[in-house]
Design goal:
The protein is α+β, with helices and mostly antiparallel strands and 277 residues long. The chain has two domains: 2-110 and 261-273, Diaminopimelate Epimerase, Chain A, domain 1, CATH 3.10.310.10; 118-259, Diaminopimelate Epimerase, Chain A, domain 1, CATH 3.10.310.10. 17% of the residues lie in helices and 39% in strands. It has four helices and 19 strands. The strands form two sheets. The protein has a 17-stranded mixed beta sheet that branches. The protein has a two-stranded antiparallel sheet with strand order 9-10.
């Protein structure tokens, strides 16, 4: 049996495996089987906790999408892993290590605040296929045009629209994700500013599809809104399908993300779902 914990951040859900004592090496097919919502436990992302590489970190977090491919960052998962470590150790501040660096997380009571590091804004950082101004990138897909490019450990294309609810992300999302303009593919956000100054966001995640929430996407949306002058100041609530995240873009370029981290249940996979282990 292979134990796991099922967690989520605003409905963006994860299977979490603990490989800090015993290494776990899963194939793409095995991850897909566990992530399947009919025959597995079901998840958007698959998280493996590993021993920290850095002396400054409490844990290393490896992230794979439901399609089995490894990705660089996941804000909601970072809060969940931080909460697990806080509950284990009693610490109020922990450091989560990923393939793109160290992320500091703080216990904020019912929520967790994570410093997601600096926003990267150059066209080579996103990356895109040609030199351009990432504040208004030369791309049109259906009703979506002129996205803002932001990298928050992973790539994002942020489209501001009059009514994000009217956008058919099942059609336009995959077209943007796999467009040749994005050689490493991209996450896709459609955003509308609401009367109270908050930002309503819907997301198509690279390698996953439509999800209830995306932490790095919410960070990218706030940065894009500040760069476009759509909001006043550098802080706003970002409202996703699964709930609200509070995002602040600090003057030093780093992004703070605050939101909940919840445990749904724990269990164990039968050996039949991961043959070869």
């Amino acid at each position: 049996m292979l134990p796991f914990v099922k967690m989520h951040g605003l409905g963006n859900d994860f299977i979490v495996l603990d490989a800090r004592e015993n290494p776990i090496d899963l194939t793409v097919a095995q991850v897909q089987a566990m992530a399947d919502r009919r025959t597995g436990a079901g998840c958007d992302q698959f998280i493996v906790m590993e021993p920290a590489r850095s002396d400054a970190a409490d844990v290393f977090m490896r992230i794979r999408n439901a399609d089995g491919n490894e990705v660089e960052a996941c804000g909601n998962a970072t809060r969940c892993i931080a909460r697990l470590v806080m509950d284990e150790t009693g610490k109020k501040d922990v450091v989560v290590e990923t393939v793109v660096g160290l992320l500091t997380a703080n216990d904020a009571g019912d929520t967790v605040t994570v410093n997601m590091g600096p926003a990267r804004l150059d066209w080579t950082d996103i990356p895109v296929a040609e030199e351009c101004d990432t504040l208004n990138m030369p791309l049109t897909v259906g009703p979506l045009e002129g996205p803002v490019g932001v990298n928050v450990g992973n790539p994002h294309a942020v489209f501001f629209v009059d009514d994000c609810e009217a956008i058919d992300l099942t059609v336009d999302g995959p077209h943007v994700e796999t467009h040749p303009f994005f050689p490493e593919r991209t996450n896709v956000e459609v955003v509308t500013k609401l009367d109270d100054g908050s930002l309503r966001m819907r997301v198509w995640e690279r390698g996953v599809g439509i999800t209830q929430a995306c932490g790095t996407g919410a960070c990218a949306v706030l940065v894009a809104a500040v760069r476009r002058g759509i909001i006043e100041g550098r802080k706003a609530d970002v409202i996703l399908d699964g709930g609200t995240l509070s995002i602040e873009w600090l003057e030093n370029g780093e992004i703070l993300m605050t939101g909940p981290a919840s445990t749904a249940f724990s269990g164990a996979f039968d050996a039949s779902i991961y043959p070869g282990m």
